[in-house]
Description:
The complex is a heterodimer.
Chain A: E1 3-13, E2 19-29, E3 33-38, H1 44-50, E4 58-63, E5 66-67, H2 73-79, E6 80-83, H3 87-90, H4 96-106, H5 111-124, H6 140-152, E7 158-162, H7 170-182, E8 186-190, H8 194-200, E9 203-208, E10 211-217, H9 218-224
Parallel strand pairs in A: 3-8, 3-9, 6-7, 7-8
Antiparallel strand pairs in A: 1-2, 1-4, 4-5, 9-10
Helix pairs in contact in A: 4-5, 4-6, 5-6
Chain B: H1 2-9, H2 21-36, H3 43-59, H4 64-71, H5 75-87, H6 91-114, H7 117-126, H8 131-160, H9 168-195, H10 212-231
Helix pairs in contact in B: 1-6, 2-6, 2-10, 3-6, 3-10, 4-6, 5-6, 7-8, 8-9
Amino acid sequence: MSRVIQIAGLRYRYPDGTQALDGIDFHLNSGESVALFGANGSGKTTFVLHLNGLLRGEGSIEICGMRLADGTLEQIRSKVGVVFQDSDEQLFMPTVLEDVAFGPLNLGLSPDDALTRARTVLKRVGMAHAFERAPYHLSAGEKKRVAIAGVLAMDPEILVLDEPTTFLDPPTRRDLLSLLRSLPQAKVVVTHDANLARALTSRAVFFDQGRITGQGDVIEIIQRFHWEYS
Amino acid sequence: MHHLVIDRWSRGSSSLHQRDPRAKLAALLVFLVVLSTTRPGAQWAFVAYAVLLILTANLARLPILGLASRAALVLPFSATFALLTWWSGDSLRALALAEKSFLSGTAALLLVGTTPLTGWTAALESWRVPRMLILVIQFVYRYLFVIAEQVQRMRWAALCRGPKQRGFRLAAGLVGVLFARSWQRADGIYHAMLARGFRGRFVPAPPAPFRSSDALFLSTCLAGCLAIRMLL
Lengths: 230, 232
């Protein structure tokens, strides 16, 4: 099984002096799914923003065999698809179809090819009825599906999902889970939801104050760190 | 919210909705130029412009009263200048100022009420309006809804903690927090754009063909406006 993410000694300090990441070593294999647990402010989101170079700290980051640097940034961003926690931040184009075509157009596809790919991906996530709708007219679950479509349209090898089930009701959560399980990409899932982690991932990593303080089987990590409501 | 209603209107299916946005934008510009150069005393001309707008709204199947009430939102601004003009002794010009601003507002609403945002911004783009300006319009429109919802939630939260809270202190607090949140959101949007390969330039969509029916529509508007301007 090949490594799609290999990180060693990653450190990051915010401009206000907060040490958000303090020596992170992490790896992810092709097709594997891993959950990132940890309290609010423990560094999980800061960590995932490093995976496609949105934040740049010290240390070594290799994605699909490419070392993250200025020259590889574009390629790496096409390999790592990030689905942000707040879908409103991700859906910025006037219509759903244009939003999903945004990434493929940036990859250099012709407008016709980009729209064809956008339509295909929207059908795959069950949003074929919403091509011409404005993103602000969608429900929270629909917005999340379109946000995922926007990332899938770039044909990434790794999916990064930041709190994917936040604001979703149980049926929508269930639908989203089955969609995510059907996707073959390797996944990094930032979540507080132990049920989601159990259903979607096999391995978990626990963050505490910018460090990884535990990793292993997802059920074992949930039990070791008491990461459940009851 | 008013912009929600207009957004719904813009997705209609009348023959006016189906006209090319470039033709509608050109027709609007012609109307505005003709209206603004009409002499203040030509009251029959203003009546004719109003009839023209009513007929157009009817063609677009838009509610006349709904349009008029929204267009009237410009009146407090123009009324200030109209009042000053009236006090200076030129009552005809004052009346014309109010009439022109109301009719201009109605015409602009007819455009946005029959053309989705993507349509008229694409028309502006095809006329080589600076891309940055169009982007700002699109982003403001897109996030107006999100910010409006945020204001509503914050207002409710404030009212829950004291039903009599209102006034400058509350408004100032809301605006301050809203500004900080909007700043954070802008940062998040930029990150999301970068994550999907954005390199500082949007890839434009190819322009749609301009049909003969669009040319006919534009010619009719042009002829109607010029006829009123010259005959009345």
